[in-house]
Amino acid sequence: MSRLPKLSEQIQNVSDPRDFLRTKLPELVDLDTLLRCHICKGFIKTPVLTPCGHTFCSLCIREYLNRELKCPLCLAELRESMLRSEFLVNEVIASYVGLRSKLLEIARNAPDVTVPHSDTSLIEIAPGDGGAHETSGDDDDLQIIETRESRPAKRNAETIGAFSKKPRLGSEKPGITSMIGKSKSPALPEDSAECPICQKHFPLEFLQRTHLDECLTMGSLGAATNSTSPSNPVNASIEPAHSIQPATRHVSEPLVPADITHSNRYMESGQNQGVARLAKLNFSSMSLQQLKAKLTSLKLSTTGSRQQLINRYNHYEMLWNSNFMDSIEPVEERELRRKLASWEATHNSLEGTPKKGNISKLLKKNSITRIKDFKTDRFDRKGWILAHQQEFKELLEEARYNLAKGSKMKDATSNHDVSQDPDHADSHPSNASYEKGEIPSNQLVVKTEEISTSSQNTAGI
Amino acid sequence: MASLPKRIIKETERLVSDPVPGITAQPHEDNLRYFQVTIEGPQQSPYENGVFELELFLPDDYPMEAPKVRFLTKIYHPNIDRLGRICLDVLKTNWSPALQIRTVLLSVQALLASPNPNDPLANDVAEDWIRNEDEAIAKAREWTKLYAK
């Protein structure tokens, strides 16, 4: 049960095309779906185009091509070298993602004109959405632009039509303009209505047929002159939404500089010069030395098993090629190595780093091989002491017994003095013999000393 | 548990909020990669009126790797063996990361509607199916009545 609220929490942080379903612009579901990667379902990051015309995140498709050499959408044969970056789509998506929350807000809070419409639009869009998920094999940018320009405009014409038909039914909109409209409406002939863009009254037929189109075109032209990029589709698609609600027009102002940077970035983009593609390696014909040399030349770590080295190179090659071949703004090698490290932490974990709880077990199992770890800082002294406490005790007892035999039996109280002797005098014959038999390292003597003193303390108490 | 990829969260949300007709999929409380699935037998098939339980597991490499799907309800079908394993191309060679839980379960439902005894997994069932189709279909109906309730 504890995980369920966590899931619902997570769900709220994940954007979904269907966020637009219950807004005034449900057609945006389609656009939102088209701009997402079919592998990760997020907005496409660093888009690359396949020869079969499909677009994916650079990293998603490269990772998949490490397993299967085919396009995930149409199963056509595909190799990494065939992928081409799409800077335009990159900027279109970046621009859309920047706009999305505002767009969503505007689409949600648009004047209450489409309430009677929203049910039908739900039905209209639902099959399209499903279809896009299952069959869409054509998210090239031509279609995206088409969707952006024609669909929302058409939609707006419809909603505005609905508005003009029922200006008094949907009269929840407050403000001076609506009050004026109300006060005037009785005087007007029945088939006239107010244009929601310029607030003038026209005969209904004229309004729907010609005036609205004109008004909308004028509006978007006016906006286009503000922006330096007349062909920017995002701007064109957002403009009608503003036109419906003149009060939000100021929102478009901060968007204009953003559009300029996306356009500029696209204009300035080009093939990255100077950085070479990392090649796929034929690991079966490489020696471990060669593999390590290769990794060292890329400033990568050479620890781990052969398989881990191979995994490390393959992942780094993917990150490298995605960054330097596909990305519009490549990051530095250092950042790539950081990404590799965080990937390794979860996917390529190194062997031989025992977990804390298991140390004593591990030590017990291979105490002989572990002894060389004594000289490193990482050696777990406490674990070692704990693991060998019993052994040490037995050794001590044996030592005491032998000593007692050598220098005749002594009473229990003088035992302390006896046991202290061998610890301080390393050259004692009987003590030296135990060490030879059981423990090869000199440092162990120090350990025995510790143990014996501590056991004496407890014995003394 | 490592954090759940966004894609899985998205798919789960969609499965629960907007289920496919005739198919339910609920993630397990303790393991959000493990789903309890039910599929209704398709109309005009021997599995009509039956409700089949399945389990579905998303491996660590999902969506690069296909989900693991298995029937829990006993079923008489040439492409499903007695352990509930399913012989279906999209679960094996034709898996693509563009597919998802939703589409996989629809494919399983479609497999119930059109058994393919020429590419069998349960050889004995497939032989029966080829030898006497009517009899095999009658047996499938009977098993549906017996087990898929």
UniProtKB/TrEMBL annotation, chain A:
Pathway participation: Protein modification; protein ubiquitination
Biased composition (Polar residues): 440-461
Subcellular location: Nucleus
A GO cellular component entry from the record: nucleus
Enzyme class: transferase
RING-type domain sequence ranges: 37-74
Coiled coil: none
InterPro entries cross-referenced by the UniProt entry: Rad18, Rad18_fungi, Rad18_UBZ4, SAP_dom, SAP_dom_sf, Znf_RING, Znf_RING/FYVE/PHD, Znf_RING_CS
Bias (Basic and acidic residues): 408-427
Entry GO MF terms: single-stranded DNA binding; ubiquitin protein ligase activity; zinc ion binding
Annotated SAP domain residues: 283-317
Residue span(s) of domain UBZ4-type: 192-220
Catalytic activity: S-ubiquitinyl-[E2 ubiquitin-conjugating enzyme]-L-cysteine + [acceptor protein]-L-lysine = [E2 ubiquitin-conjugating enzyme]-L-cysteine + N(6)-ubiquitinyl-[acceptor protein]-L-lysine
Main subcellular location: nucleus
Entry's EC annotation: 2.3.2.27
Region feature (Disordered): 407-461
Subunit structure: Interacts with E2 UBC2, forming a complex with ubiquitin ligase activity.
Function: E3 RING-finger protein, member of the UBC2/RAD6 epistasis group. Associates to the E2 ubiquitin conjugating enzyme UBC2/RAD6 to form the UBC2-RAD18 ubiquitin ligase complex involved in postreplicative repair (PRR) of damaged DNA.
Family statement: Belongs to the RAD18 family.
Protein name: Postreplication repair E3 ubiquitin-protein ligase RAD18
UniProt organism field: Lachancea quebecensis
TrEMBL record, chain B:
Domain UBC core stretches: 3-149
Entry keyword Cell division: no
PROSITE patterns per UniProt: UBC_1, UBC_2
GO MF term set: ATP binding; ubiquitin conjugating enzyme activity
EC number of this enzyme: 2.3.2.23
Keywords: ATP-binding, Nucleotide-binding, Transferase, Ubl conjugation pathway
Active site: C87 (glycyl thioester intermediate)
Top-level EC class as recorded in UniProt: transferase
Domain of life: Eukaryota
Pfam (any one): UQ_con
InterPro entries: UBC, UBQ-conjugating_AS, UBQ-conjugating_enzyme/RWD
Keyword Nucleotide-binding in annotation: yes
Family: Belongs to the ubiquitin-conjugating enzyme family.
Listed name of the protein: E2 ubiquitin-conjugating enzyme
